[in-house]
Amino acid sequence: MEDPTVERITGLGFMILSLLREGDMHPYEMMRLMRQRHDDRFVAISNGTFYHTVGRLERLGLVDEVGVERAGNRPERTTYALTDAGRETVVDWVRRELPGIDRPAEFRVALAEAHHLRRDEVVALLRTRRAALAELHGMQVEARREAREKDVPRQFILEVEREDAMLAAELTWLEGIITALEEHAFPWGVDELDGPTERYLADREEARR
Fold it and tell me: Distance between CA 108 and CA 106 in Å, rounded?
């Protein structure tokens, strides 16, 4: 049975939890890192919403305060750590959103953070998504066929054409990425990487300032 807490986590909340898997951070560092990585492609990042979301995650028991620091004349900065429940929520959230086809914004976030799951599990979830998209694509093809038979002017079915093309493109991409994952064509997960890159370490150092 799915933890009801997962349903209450927004895309921004999930990104914060995912970020804290890398280590303890204060909200200012989190925001700077997310902006450096252009995570605002997926979720809106504003100071007010960010701090509100961190507070909500703390009330849900997904993050904990682990210290307060002050450097020079800067305001105090509270550092947060991921709890065991928060760590589990990251994985459960990806499992929930990766195979679905009715929440495109959440899918993009889940795909960006899918590396938190095992390779074989990601393959299985993407296969589920592909099957659902293939069924939807079949319905779109049938709708276009019926429209042609009824001589519906093309100007009225442009969106159907666009959706058909988008679905076909994603199905092709999914087939390729599933095959690449199965064939171990590229490293997957932190354990298969050679360690943190110089760019990653530099970004973390810059975000802490």
Answer: 5
